[in-house]
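Entry 14. Structure prediction run on the chain below.
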Amino acid sequence: MEKLGLISGPKALDSPVRISRRAIVAGLALSPFALIACGVSGGQGSTSGATSSPPTDSPAPDEAIRATCATAEADLIALYDATLATFPDTAGLSTIRDEHAAHLDAFGVSGNPAATPIVAKSQSQALKDLQKAEQAAAEARTTDCVAVGDAALARLIALIAASEAAHAVALGGGA
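Output returned:
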């Protein structure tokens, strides 16, 4: 079996995935930027003086975004499940998979994968595919959090975006 390091250094894939302190710090460092990008602040409202749409206008679009995010999390879970089934010696990936299950639960709606994932034949390519999927998910969640009207949902999506960015860093081996 070919041994590949998920994180810079001699760590092999047959050991659990360990997220380095640098990856955690990078993810945490991205959190405030994601919150700012989403227009979420610690205050009670916007100080820009702009008026917002009435609260009755936002639930339908927010719920559509919530459903989209839930489906995206289900897609990531399915990709991790398929990767773990194909390469069972990458058991350390189950920690990240479980974090995605927690993300899905946090949305409070069920999500079903849009398609059955196809896993690369080589372990190294499968890990690169996971890293790319995490990066794409982080970017999509950042876009989603800007579009929602509900501040609590925006915070949730921003935190999930930061988590997915940290996963991408951990899988990509740099920070």
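The radius of gyration is 17 Å.
Filed with the rest of this week's runs.
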